[in-house]
Sequence to fold (892 residues):
Amino acid sequence: MSEFLQQLVNGVTWGSVYALIALGYTMVYGILRLINFAHGDVYMLGAFFAYFASRALGAATDPNPGKALLVLVISMLAAGAVGIVIERFAYKPVRKSSRLSALITAIGVSLLLENGGILVFGSDPKFFPQIITARNIPLGLGVTISNQQIIILVVSLALMFALRFIVLQTRVGKAMRAVSYNPTAAALMGISVDRIVTFTFMLGSMLAAAAGVLVALQNPKIEPLMGIMPGLKAFVAAVLGGIGNIPGAVLGGLVMGIAEVMVVGYVSPTYRDAIAFVLLIVILLVRPAGILGKATAEKV
Amino acid sequence: MNPDVLLELDHVTMQFGGLKAVADLSLEIGRGELVGLIGPNGAGKTTVFNLVTGVYTPTVGRVLLEGRAIQGLRPHAIARRGITRTFQNIRLFASRTCRDNVRIAAHQHSGASLADALLRTARFERDERDMRAKADELLAVLGLTEWADTPASDLPYGQQRRLEIARALAGRPLLLLLDEPAAGLNPQESEQLMHLIEQIRRQFQVTILLIEHDMRVVMGICRRIAVLDYGVKIAEGTPDQIRTDPKVIEAYLGEDVHASPEAAS
Amino acid sequence: MKHVLGIVVSLGVLVALDIVLPRLLNPYLFQVLVLCGINVILAVSLNLVNGFTGQFSIGHAGFMAIGAYGSAMFSLEIGQRWVTTLGALGVPPVIAQGAALLVALLAGGALAAVAGYLVGLPSLRLRGDYLAIVTLGFGEIIRVVILNVDAIGAARGLPGIPGWVNFFWVGFWVLIVIVVSRRLAASTHGRALFAIRDDEVAAEALGVDTTSYKVLAFVMGAFFAGVAGGLFAHYLSYLNPNSFTFLKSIEVIAMVVLGGMGSISGAVMAAVLLTLAPELLRPVKDYRMVIYSLMLIVLMITRPGGLMGSREIGWPRFLRRAKAEHA
Fold:
């Protein structure tokens, strides 16, 4: 029983990370109907930006929460900037093209970030410095949680609430929702669709970067291809929850995280990556709109 | 079953969530008739077409072709049984030539299998010659011969509408559904279209159900008209009866439903 | 009569080239040529699915893998014994090996086709993006499964596959896939596929069984991908799951897109170009992938129609050009 609860704790922690990344996918898809293949690589960039920021600020030699927070913020802002640049130079020109063109562009950007990363950072892994001293806290019933896991959960929750606030309570959030329902109508109401798209990309990228930093806290080995699998899995999580649906992304992320941890713990570690695709195929065959999604029919 | 009834909608309801797009509609189309289906925008007319062609399955009720139920069948199966259509927003195969657009619609009557095609058997060559000849015939009837090798997307609007009709005829249908064929046409073109539809009906011995907003076209060629409003049939009868029916006039917000150029929408 | 003559001449040319080319080209160039051929088969077969029918399949490497491993296991378990037996009966090795290879390739292709059917049938009712993701997922699942099955080598790879592939067989299958594609395109069945690509709703409404045709394209594409995989296996004599990653699927997609979706000659040219490019870019090896990804992006932004759009080069012109390239 205690093992199960431990796995659950681990699963929810991982799930929060997937949720953060999935949110970016779902928001961009909701607005542009584009699967941003490069999103997982922004997660990777987040980890690397934080790596360099930590070194620059000396956050490892003198660990304190303030510096760690600063590292997180710097990484998020830098990634947000990357998101804006990608959107402006790669995705905007193909917005009017066919969906396949946009998909291939996204794949191209993803490959560019990965291979550019190899070129710039080197393909050998770096070790993310310990900017928070690790501690294990027993929760009783034989379950322990590390302070890194707590940080992951707390920061994820905070960011998700922040996103929720933005989307539901602010004008720009309302504009985002309008654009996702009907870009033409939104434009006619005076909303600058371009700016909203850029803003959405920025937000999504910031969340992905945060996920990258949080993961690096716990798994310090970072390398330029580290975003591929988490990116794919987070995408599956977004589809699971209903692509385009923000609460769905969170739900999907949690399901994905828990499922993965359970499969690794109770079945076999070698099927760790496969479970994501099995889930994907199951959901697409059984309920393509996702758990919280609504099926939209094409008007004939 | 009355052999003169080609198509019957039997208490058909189409419900989307809380919205009844079509509510308890019963309608009979007789063999060889030219029936008009009119009503304000959003009345459910295209939904009726979608129900008949299998794009939607009715929530309640049956659709019967020659007495046999076809609701629930996939659109291509219904097309093979003899119901073809044109679309409100033109849905041509844009990259294909006019001839190809028509030939694709004749696909169901092709006798050559995939193996025949890959091995280029005599049967395949014959089949291709036949289809090409028949397609060219149809293009000629619709006045599209000069465009036969032109990609459909390059055609002027009026010719595109005609191509849609040619395509729908290629399937040798029993019942032809025309969804606003006069949309976007000027008065002369509408006039030509009216004559064309009548000619098609006679020449191809096909029953026609027509959705149209251009009242002159509807009143000019339809022998019988059914009127929908909010998914409900509010009137049915000859053009004269419809023209003077108070419910119909009210549904069109008091507009005069006369076949005069000014009122034609 | 015209057909038979064409077949005999083509086969004759292939045999001639098969004898002549290994003498003219050094082993490295010959390998590049073989890989070109395999990539052409992959690109033209994917063109059936993505180009003709407009379906987003990005798991082609998965079908290639199934064909590769399937045919390899067949040869290792059964084919090799046949060759030995036939050899003992006095059949010349070239013929015995060729026959065994042919059967192995057909087996691999058939296995891949079955997989194509199983994947295609439920997935093809999904909208474009979703189909892309399912095919991607399928490709990855195949790779993971291979990684975990010891009997076919798992992560260590599968060595010792008989190296029966020569230029004749590569050229043979390249010709077959091109001829099949062209004949399909100029037939009512091909027209049905194009109709589905242009407007699936209209195609269905006019009597085209869109599901059956999409599955057909999928199965045919998968079959030839499997054959390409088999050729790959029997040329390198060694298989490793890392040859069949998502990246390989992307490379094939890039070929189809670069060539112009729907254009057979475009796919052929692009496949050759993109096989030669890494070799030509060897001096800047580190930058190769960056250049490749930039090329994809720039291509989509500036010329999404690819090299050929959806046009084709006439057959005679292509033959002349192909002969000039390989002489």
